[in-house]
Amino acid sequence: MDLEFDRQHLWHPYTSMTNPLPVLGVTSASGCRLRLDDGRELIDGTSSWWSAIHGYSHQALVAAVQKQAAQLSHVMFGGLTHEAAIDLGKALLKLTPAGLSRVFFADSGSVAVEVAIKMAIQYWQGRGKAGKHKLLTVLGGYHGDTFAAMSVCDPNAGMHGMFGHLVAKQLFASAPRAGFDRPFCDDDIRELKTLLEREHDSIAAVIIEPILQGAGGLRFYSPDYLRALRALCDQYQVLLIADEIATGFGRTGKAFACEHAGITPDLLCLGKALTGGMLSLAATLCSDEVAAGIGDSPAGVFMHGPTFMANPLACAAASASLELFAKGDWQAQVSRIEAELKRGLDDASALPQVVDVRVLGAVGVIEMAGSIDTAFAMHAFAARGVWVRPFGRLIYVMPPYCISSAELAALTRAMVEVAALDGILKAEVTPSHG
Predict the structure, then answer these.
(1) pTM score, two decimals?
(2) Cβ neighbours of residue 395 under 8 Å, at least 6 residues apart?
(3) Residue 156 pLDDT
């Protein structure tokens, strides 16, 4: 494998082309294992950015894509439809929270968020309230890399701060403070409530990652907060957008994180695990009321239409993945993973460089006292036979649900060992004062 060509010419995510991070060449994958071009095998702890929940090369997913490819690999969705999209739509409406009835397919999670934001704005246009066009969200969130999505990511500590003067100015409240299983009080949501009370005439929607803030910091918060937020959105006539791109399909121990609070959002964004990691696909679901409002807007139609919308290959993979999910033993798998993560990461709490260890469902996090040297960490993990990609101050895993207890033990052991290494944190840079 020509890794030198890759280093010189191929741009990887969140990486400099002048000083690129190292990459490993993968030749094949199956189950929870990645096979490298040098013959090594790594246990995958990230499910390829949280998407491959059934593991790699699952026979049912491969067969579904192969069958669909032989019949219809792609056709435009404008004016045409196909069985793969219809089957997937039925499966999604059966699985997602009650009250969601319309499905818009897109290419990626970021686009699903863009779609939800545009839907919310067009809805209020249709209801004669075009002044409701702002978004309200909480600090510490992450919703994607495209421009509307960036506008609702954390404007200060988020990875898109350098674009702050270019993106739409949105409203931000403090992040939820109460942990998942800690008592919730009204003070936790007071700032958000104040913003809604003062600004609701200009707010189209609140967008939030339910229960688990993902790439913004992997923080868990109380279901009571989500219940209170749903009530506030109803009270002040503001739509609620649930970004479940990271949390959907079992990751937190429920099929969808909204279920922890027993609420249904007005709009729901899905992606990542939707196809079981086979192909890129996302979906934005909404209620009848939202669809009706968009139909009443000046445009009369929803103004969005990706070229590869409802791609048959991706839809077929997604239907197969949802069938595995519906019939499988994911709840027992995630429950086992949660228990084993708690046991396996417990020793990290005593490390002087560690400030927090937290687990929810199939998510395990070690938060460090400073920024992690990613290149150093990736090399250290690969040397221990595992694939873990830290970011910021976080060493985390979100493994495939099919991971064995032995494989998970290897992951958690490596996490604790690497967290203890002297070189794991970036050296502090002291500013020069001349």
Answers:
(1) 0.96
(2) 365, 366, 368, 372, 377, 388, 415, 418, 419
(3) 83
